[in-house]
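Board notes (copied after class):
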Amino acid sequence: MVPAGSQTRSGRVSRRPAMADAKTRSRVAEMEAAFERRARANGRTFEQEVEFLIERQQPLTPEERVATIRYLHSRCNGIQPSLTLDEIREGLM
């Protein structure tokens, strides 16, 4: 994270206070713990609870969105390699 008043990679000056980042991380940790408690109460695993929340198609709170995205990212094995030009051309034909 870039401290408030510091220059970012793009050359802009960050206006986000560092305390806001700490509060956000704290709220996300609280939300993940809430998902875990909710899953146990409903007799589901954490993953099943996240899938249930996604499938119910009701708007998620910002904290629920972050927790859901973190879960989905945790299931990916890093950055996937880009397609080569030959693979792209082959797909277009």
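Comment from the instructor: The first helix runs from residue 18 to 41. Residues 82 and 88 are 10 Å apart (CA to CA).
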